[in-house]
Amino acid sequence: MEIKNRIIGIDFGATFIKFGLLNLKGEILKKSSFPTKAYISRKSLISGIIAESESMVAGLRKRLLGVGIGVPGQVDYNKGVIYNLTNVKGWRGVHLRDIIKSRLKVPVFIDNDANAACIGEAKWGAGKGFNDIICITLGSGLGSAVMIEGRIFRGRGYSAAEMGHICIERYGLKCNCGGRGCLETFAGNSYIVKEAVKRLKKGEKSQLLKLANGKFSEITPKLIDEASKEGDRFSINVWKRMGENVGIGLSSIVNTFNPEVIVIGGGVAKSGKILFGSIRTTIKNRAIPVFTRDLKIRRARFIEDAGTVGAAALVLE
Ligand SMILES: [Zn+2]
Asked: Which residues of the chain have a pLDDT value below 50?
């Protein structure tokens, strides 16, 4: 009998569906992807996912241990049913786990992508060896997950740990969750660009606009990062301020959960030395001192592959 030592992790995103073939050590052996819109109907998209999975394990079919799927939205982890997907229409009430299981004939697991990413970090990444973990992902917004005593806390409606929507400003901007002054409106890629443009328009001095060829529309988080590395004070301060915002939000989280480690991932975590420093200092200054004494704040190990690795880790949870 062949040893089952291959896992497929599927990152179901609004723009791309990414696939990773992993071994049990969390190493990616093969990757592929296709645009989510490559298939018109839901049914054909599911068939596409199954076909791609089959081709990932071509020749190794008997060694496939299972398939994990991370999706951007609410999922009943136990029943394998999707309740709602952010930015992907028409998936309400879909029993995706069972459909895929019946076709591939291996165990299939499905969870929210932020939860999956946290499980991936706990299993193979920056959260390895810890039981009480907070994971946040700084992308276009702020994704998050909470692991308590080694298990993801999912909440009654499988929507727990939306830390991007804790309020940090009583009279702040209206957020698309319906709240006001949410952390997400003070963090992430869209925040940082908006903040930089707002300050430049007020007349603050910076090299940034020159780097953006004089166009506000060409300012990106990457460009702000480059400018800060060249010592541009303005850009350094933009990162610092975002770090403070994130740190203020996380201080409340630290006081609530008393975690061992906070793992920070997402595109901006790749660079972001200034950002990390600012997050650390803010938490140190604001959270209850005994909670921060041994607290670790770490960069995620998986950035681009967080989705597929996390999904694969679901199979071993
Ligand atoms: Zn909100």
From this structure: none
Burial 270-297 (b: 16+ CB within 10 A, else e): ebbebbbebbbebbbebbeeebbeebeb
Residue-level pLDDT at 92? 93
Task: Read off the pLDDT of residues 10-61 as tens digits, 9 standing for 90 and up.
Answer: 999 989 999 999 999 999 999 999 999 999 999 999 999 999 999 999 988 8
**DSSP 8-state secondary structure symbol assigned to residue 63:** G
Tell me how far the alpha carbon of residue 199 lies from the centroid of ligand 1, in angstroms.
23
Residue 142 tokens, joined: 């702020």
DSSP letter assigned to residue 27: -
Closest CA to 299 of 243, 246, 258, 261: 261
Distance from the alpha carbon of residue 10 to the mean position of ligand 1, in angstroms: 27
- Please state the φ and ψ torsions of residue 177, each to the nearest 5 degrees: -85, -10
Cα 83 to ligand 1 centre (Å): 19
In order of their start, the domains of the chain are 6-122+305-316 (3.30.420.40), 128-299 (3.30.420.40)
Report how far residue 11's alpha carbon sits from residue 59's, in angstroms, rounded to the nearest whole number: 23
Beta-bridge mates of residue 69: 10, 110
Distance 86 CA to ligand 1 centre (A): 14
Residues 6+ apart with CB under 8 A from 76: 83, 158
Distance, CA of 164 to CA of 195 (rounded, Å):
17
Tens-place pLDDT, residues 58-88: 988 899 999 999 999 999 999 999 998 888 8
Please tell me the distance from the alpha carbon of residue 254 to that of residue 271, in angstroms, as a whole number.
24
Q: Who surrounds ion ligand 1 at CB < 5 A?
A: 165, 175, 177, 179, 182
